[in-house]
Amino acid sequence: MHPSAPPLKEHPVEIFFEALLVLVCVGVLAFAGLTVKKLFQGQR
């Protein structure tokens, strides 16, 4: 880390990739939940 750079400011690309990673994780979790739900509903 450079001492001259403020620690709170990040590169826009870094923020974009972090947001993308969070969106992908949420989407995968939601998809997995829906799949399990449909599987359990189909078994009944």
Account of the protein in words:
By secondary structure, this protein is mostly helical. The protein contains 1 helix and no strands. The protein has one helix at 12-43. It is rod-shaped and about 60 Å long. It starts with 11 loop residues before the first helix and ends with a helix.
How does the SSE layout of this entry go?
Blueprint: H1 12-43
Q: What attributes characterize this protein structure?
A:
single chain; 44 residues; mainly alpha; 1 helix; 73% helix; rod-shaped; transmembrane; membrane; transmembrane helix
Short description:
The longest helix is centred in the middle third of the chain and has 32 residues. The mean pLDDT is about 85. This protein is mainly α.
Q: Helical amount among residues, as a percent range?
A: over 70%
Average pLDDT metric = 85
Largest beta-sheet characterization: none
Provide the low-confidence segments as ranges: none
Provide the structure class.
mainly alpha
Number of helices: 1
User: Would you count the extended β strands for me?
Assistant: 0
How far do the termini sit from each other?
Answer: 56 Å
| Secondary-structure element series | H
Tell me what portion of residues adopts beta-strand conformation. Answer: under 5%
Transmembrane segments: 15-36
Keywords: Membrane, Transmembrane, Transmembrane helix
